[in-house]
Specification:
- The chain contains six helices and no strands.
- With 170 residues, the protein is an all-alpha fold.
């Protein structure tokens, strides 16, 4: 692959992950407005939050993950800091789902979304986004053998997860 194409995939990844993160930081505060509005303003708020979540933030998350996966294979990023980054990306995915469920609950079941819930979701986002930025920019050296000597050995994940997946084996 040419340098230009690799640069384009990186640019798409950075742009979409920025949109995803910004949207996830914004949506809890929009949901918090639910208790303060009614009538036509409520319908506009509902339409805005659904538009942001369904048409902007969720597609940005999908493209960010897709382009990030492409970059794994294009650049051969198989180092410990990257594995740690994926843990925090997984946290972003979980929080993305939590925001979506909150959106449905707030507007479908007529529930309020208080400042404490917004703060918890926002702090969770910062707890995911901050480490991702640090890991990507610093690329710290981790010694995975200090954590678990056989962590990256072939078949290690299966052995590690065996107690959790014993019910699924025939």
């Amino acid at each position: 692959m040419s340098e230009t194409a690799l640069w384009l995939v990186k640019a798409i990844h950075v742009a979409t992950i920025s949109l995803w993160a910004a949207g996830l930081l914004t949506l809890p505060f929009l949901l918090m407005q639910r208790s303060a509005v009614g009538g036509t303003a409520l319908h506009r708020l509902h339409a805005l939050t659904r538009f942001l979540y369904v048409k902007l933030v969720s597609p940005a998350a999908f493209v960010a993950i897709l382009s990030g996966t492409a970059l794994i294979f294009l650049q051969g990023t198989y180092v410990e800091w990257f594995s740690a980054k994926l843990v925090f990306v997984g946290l972003m995915v979980v929080l993305h789902i939590a925001v979506g469920l909150a959106l449905v609950r707030v507007f479908t079941h007529d529930h309020d979304f208080g400042a404490l819930r917004a703060a918890v979701l926002t702090l969770g986002q910062f707890a995911a986004i901050g480490p991702i930025l640090w890991l990507v920019l610093d690329k710290p050296a981790f010694d995975s053998t200090a954590l678990r000597p056989d962590l990256f050995a072939p078949g290690a994940l299966g052995r590690l997860l065996a107690p959790l997946t014993a019910w699924a084996t025939p």
